[in-house]
Amino acid sequence: MAGRIEDYALIGDMQTAALVCRDGTVDWLCLPRFDSPAVFAGLLGTEEHGFWRMGPAGGDGPRAADRRRYRGDSLVLESEWDTPRGTVRVIDFMPPRDGAPQVIRVVEGVSGRVPMRSELRMRFAYGWVVPWVHKVDGRTVAVAGPDSVWLDTSAETYGKDLTTYSDFTVSPGERIAFTISWQPSHHQPPALAEPEQSLEATEDFWREWVEHCTYHGPYRDAVVRSLITLKALTYAPTGGIVAAPTTSLPECIGGIRNWDYRFTWLRDAAITLSSLLRTGYREEARAWREWLLRAVAGDPENLQIMYGIAGERELGETELKWLPGYEDSRPVRVGNGAAGQLQLDVYGEVTEALHLAHMTGLARNDYASLLQIKLIEWVEKHWDEPDEGIWEVRGPRRHFVHSKVMTWVAVDRTVKLIESGDVDGPLERWKDLRETIHRDVCEHGYDKERNTFTQSYGSEELDASLLLIPQVGFLPPDDKRVIGTIEAIQRELSTEDGFVLRYPTAGEGLGVDGLEGDEGAFLACSFWLADDLAMIGRVEEARKLFEKLLSLRNDLGLLAEEWDSRLQRQVGNFPQAFSHVPLIDTALRLTASGAYGG
Predict the structure, then answer these.
(1) pLDDT tens column, 23-53
(2) What is the distance in angstroms between the CA of the first residue and the CA of the last residue of the chain?
(3) What is the value of pTM for the model shown?
């Protein structure tokens, strides 16, 4: 059975990632890319769907490590078990790729003589296909169709019940390594692993990358861990950034709100880029901008809200009916049908990211400026249409207020680009357009009686995305309409423990999003509230909420998409870029305001 979502650690090579549970089990790994079929899919099913467990032998079965941590500012995981016979450490990591993707697990004796067991059950195609496992020149290889996974270790291995085992004992200072490597099945075998050299190189990579971080405030540990997580979600060959490395981890345990997040949402990638730029990481910004230009190509009028990590456009959604889902949360989905939705806010987020890149001195790219102009030409014709909005509703389109606000952002940032003299455009016409959108939102998206903006034109519902109104500069923080909206969201969308829901859901009925069921508090929205509170001068309240949010992170500093206040646990895909980005942004704002404790 899979662990709780917060029981997992992330390791990765910036092309794919694995989740390692507290008990030493790798329950999720897609090879060779984030969006490839999983080799270990036990996270969404049972052990029959693939896993790799490494831990002390004997007892009543696997148990959680007594301690675990990342080695410094890296993605090298250490887990330690204390047993009656001594203490043992397992070091898990994926070296930045130079050849075949690898997962390396080094077992190290700390004290005593500890019997250990490795259980490796590979199942390709998300647990559907049992591979042919055999020996080639002393190496164990699993083959199925186009895929092969090679196991290299100095320990003796044997097969039983379609699983590869190894039983061995470690003494103090002794290290035994296990490596799996993926290779197309029609290629020559991958090179033999060099675990010790790879470990040193991996630690060096992360140490050198973190040295570029320009944030040195009181929340540095939380910010750096979030930055490392965002870097791990970057697909290095193209610069694309996945929203999360998982699919179908439920927003409500046992519910149907289960989605595939292993793609590049323009929104998520744009806000990730903004956080990286604000903390000193220009190279990632340049790579993402190049990815964007390739993905959009010569067709900005058909901008998609998301693409594959290499810029693929077709992301058809299907259900994997043989997987029972995480804690019976069905269906398990791969692909994402929301790719074809109209979400007007994306134009604002992309334009804002391009604007920030320009303002922070990223080398000019003439096509990026041309793309920005083309996007605004499209916005000029379509800003007043209904859309599916930031939350990808699967009900009817509406005139979502946040969407309209973000079209204003798109026009505003482009006006500023033209005013800077770096590009030509119809300045006066677009200044008029900016004013028209602003007036339209204030007239149709604001409820005067309740003194709050609403989710959509003419609606009574609130929406946490309205918290972004002061953050993007649509209205100043001290505007009474902004303060009224913040207070209304606190009053009507907060959980008992003070976190923020995205919008009202309908339980067993169909909600505004066209779906049944409820969901947890959305962590990004809760960070937005902390940000807003600081902006309107309630900095101590903002600090307390922020630090309360920090307490929801697991022991390794990782956050999923949502928090289930009833069950007191993390829910949704994990780890989630859309949670770690506002963590960074709020830390920067609180640091600038001096609002932090101790």
Answers:
(1) 999 999 999 999 999 999 999 999 999 999 9
(2) 41
(3) 0.96
